[in-house]
C-alpha cells in the first residue's frame, strides 16, 4: 500500500460550498495551495495563503477566462509520473513542481440549461479547463488525488491530516472523477445533438433480478431525484427487482388523482378504485380480483390510517406505497414485518421510457396522463355517472399491458383483461372477472376494436358505455353495434398501448 503525502494542491472550483474550511485544513497540514481566478480571490479574502496560477505559468488569463490553466506548468505538474525517470527529468528541466492533489468542480452546465438561459450563456458554461484537469489527475491517480465534489472534502482532509492519500482512496476518487466528466459530457451531448448518453450511478445491489439466477443492481440517473430515491421505507426487508417494477407501475397509476388505491401484480393492475375514505376504497379495489391481488403491491394516493392498515394486514401483501401513514397504522403494520412500507412523493412526468434491444434501446417519451379529446359517436350520450366511470376506466386501461380492456362500476375496476393477444380475448377475460358486476358498468379499450365482437361481448355482459380510440376500418360496424345494443360509444383522441 502506497501513501502519497500531499505537499502541493491545485484548487479551481465553481461551487465554493465548504471550500474555505477545507482549504484551511490543507494549509494547516502544510500543503502549499495554487489557485486561479475567483477561487484564488475567495481563498485570499478568507486568509488562506495562495499562489495564483498566473504566477506559476507566467501567462495571464485570456479570452475572458477561457484559457488560464491550460499550460505545461499546470498539466505537467498533474500528469508527471514520479516513478518514471524521464518524467522526473522533464520536471527538473522545465522547473515544474508536481501536484499531489487537484481539487476541481465544474461549471453548472445542466443547471444553466434548466434555467432557460440563452445559447450564448449555456455555451460559456461548457467547462474546458476543469474537465482537462480532472481527467489528467484521474489518469495519474497512482501519484495524484482528484477531488471532484465538495462531498469528498471531509474524507480527503482527514487522509491528508493523517499523512496522505492511500492507493484505495486515490483510485476511488479517480473513478468518481471519470464518472463526473462522463456525466458532464453526456449533458452537453443531449443539449447539442440527437444522440443519447445516460450516466447511471449504482445505488445498491439487489439480491437477484426477475429470477434467482439473474444478477441485478439498482441505478439512478446522475443528478436525478426520482420518487423511489426519496421514498422513506418504514419496515420490511430490502426491495427486490420485481418489487421496484411493480411499485413504479402502481405509484404512477394512483397518482392520476388523489383518492385512488391500486393493487398491482406483475406491473398490471388487478384492482383499482377511487373514493374519499381510504379503508373503504382499499376494500373496493381488492374486491376486483382477490385471487390475483394475493402477494401484490398496494399503492395509496392518500394517508393510510389504522382502519386501512388493519384491512391490509389481513391480506398477503409484498409492498405498501402511500403518500403518508399514521403512527397507529405503522403500529398495526409492524406486526406484519414482511410488508415493506414506503412513503413517497409523487412521481415526476416527462422522462424517457427505454426498452432494451440487443446492444441497443427503443426510446420514447413517457405516455402521460394527458387529457384526451372525446367524441360521442353513438346515438346515446353518456350520463354523468357513465362519464365518470369512462374516465376512470380510461386511466386504468392506459396503465395496463396491451391488449387491455377494463370494466369499471362506480369508479372501481370490477374486471381487468390485460396482456391478451386479441382484443376480444381481453374483453372476454374482463367480463369473466367482472361477472354480474359488469351490469351497468363502463369499459375502456386501450386501442380500437378491429371488429364488433369485442364490443358485443361487453354489451352482452351488461356494460352500458364504452370508450376506445377509434381508427379502425371497421369503425362503422362497431358504431352500428353500439347503437343496436343501445349503449354509449365514445372515441378518444389517442390510443394507449403499453407493451
C-alpha end-to-end distance: 52 Å
Q: Biggest sheet: strands, sense, closure?
A: 6 strands, mixed
Question: How big a fraction of the residues is strand?
Answer: 15-25%
CATH topology of the largest domain: Rossmann fold
Low-confidence stretches: none
Report on the structure:
- With 499 residues, the chain is an alpha/beta fold.
- The chain folds into three domains: 190 residues, Methylglyoxal synthase-like domain (Rossmann fold), CATH 3.40.50.1380; 117 residues, Cytidine Deaminase, domain 2; 119 residues, Cytidine Deaminase, domain 2.
- The chain contains 20 helices and 23 strands.
- Strands 10-15-14-13-11-12 form a six-stranded mixed sheet. A six-stranded mixed sheet has the order 18-23-22-21-19-20. A five-stranded parallel sheet has the order 4-3-2-5-6, sandwiched between helices.
- Helix 1 packs parallel to helix 9, helix 13 runs parallel beside helix 15 and helix 19 runs parallel beside helix 20.
- The radius of gyration is 30 Å and the shape is elongated.
- The two termini are 52 Å apart.
Describe this structure in a few short sentences.
Strand 21 (442-445), helix 19 and strand 22 form a beta-alpha-beta unit.
Topology:
Blueprint: E1 3-4, E2 8-13, H1 19-28, E3 32-35, H2 37-45, E4 51-52, H3 53-57, H4 72-79, H5 85-93, E5 101-105, H6 109-114, H7 119-124, H8 129-139, E6 145-147, H9 153-161, E7 165-166, H10 167-192, E8 200-206, E9 216-221, H11 227-230, E10 232-235, H12 241-254, E11 260-265, E12 268-274, H13 278-287, H14 290-293, E13 296-304, H15 306-313, E14 317-325, H16 327-333, E15 340-343, E16 352-357, E17 360-365, E18 374-376, H17 384-398, E19 405-408, E20 413-417, H18 423-434, E21 442-445, H19 453-460, E22 465-468, H20 475-485, E23 488-492
Parallel strand pairs: 2-3, 2-5, 3-4, 5-6, 13-14, 14-15, 21-22, 22-23
Antiparallel strand pairs: 1-7, 8-9, 10-15, 11-12, 11-13, 16-17, 18-23, 19-20, 19-21
